[in-house]
Specification:
Number of strands: 11
Strand content: over 45%
Radius of gyration: 13 Å
Helix content: under 10%
Largest sheet: 7 strands, mixed
Structural class: mainly beta
């Protein structure tokens, strides 16, 4: 069982940056592919980024890859999502997720564990 706790959300102005953190408890963090998803009000949950267990492979939503970056520190059981040049349309609840298996999947149904989410609001 993996428990995930996100932190780092908040209110920022357009153009600013924010880094979200997700800390996992439980054994063998490095075997899990980690992903970030987001859900805006009235919209479906959307894939943002994922990173392989070793950190050597990443995938992104195409429209975000120039502004967002995912990384992990297996020694600290942590995965980060660095977000730059934030826009109002980035406003959403951001969720951290983990899946046991291969591949940086973009499919939320393939992730087995989820955090409670952290709110990111981009507004002037």
């Amino acid at each position: 069982q993996v428990q995930l706790v996100e932190s780092g959300g908040g209110l920022v102005q357009p153009g600013e940056s924010l880094t979200l953190s997700c800390t996992a408890s439980g054994p063998s963090f490095s075997v899990y592919v980690m992903g970030w998803f987001r859900q805006a009000p009235g919209k479906n949950r959307e894939f943002v980024a994922a990173i392989s267990g070793s950190g050597g492979s990443t995938s992104y939503l195409d429209s975000l890859k120039d502004r967002f970056s995912i990384s992990r520190d297996n020694a600290k059981n942590t995965v980060l999502l660095s977000m730059n040049s934030l826009k109002p349309e980035d406003t959403a609840v951001y969720y951290c997720a983990a899946r046991a298996g291969w591949g940086t999947s973009k499919n939320a149904l393939e992730y087995h564990y989820w955090g409670q989410g952290t709110q990111v609001t981009v507004s002037s």
